[in-house]
Automatic annotation (TrEMBL):
Protein's UniProt name: High-potential iron-sulfur protein
UniProt GO MF annotations: 4 iron, 4 sulfur cluster binding; electron transfer activity; metal ion binding
Known partners and oligomeric status: Homodimer.
Sequence similarity: Belongs to the high-potential iron-sulfur protein (HiPIP) family.
Organism this protein belongs to: Photobacterium swingsii
């Protein structure tokens, strides 16, 4: 059976790319630091739809103890899974609030 050099080359390059991405590609993509993210504005369309506010009206329900917040504990502004590319105030709140599991 005659092999197809174009197909063979394609498979070699595909396999090489897959190995490169899985073994060494992780260091090439850095997540944005919370300090580099713009702060979410209360009048942002998505923030307004979820009734986001910078200061929670309830002392026991705020972004700091929400399951959706990301980043380092103690930072005033942190990324949130609901608002990609923007940071929320740790003292804030929105209608999608979900308490962290204990």
């Amino acid at each position: 059976m005659k092999s197809n050099p174009t197909r063979r080359r394609f498979l070699q390059l595909s396999l090489g790319g897959l190995i490169g991405v899985t073994l060494g590609g992780k260091h090439l993509i850095k997540p944005a630091a919370a300090a580099d993210l713009p702060h979410l504005a209360e009048d942002d369309a998505q923030a307004a739809a979820l009734k986001y506010v910078h200061v929670s009206p309830e002392s026991d329900k705020h972004c700091e103890n929400c399951a959706l917040i990301q980043g380092t504990d103690g930072d005033e502004w942190r990324p949130c899974a609901l608002f990609p590319g923007k940071a929320v105030n740790a003292k804030g709140w929105c209608s999608a609030y979900a308490p962290k599991p204990s």
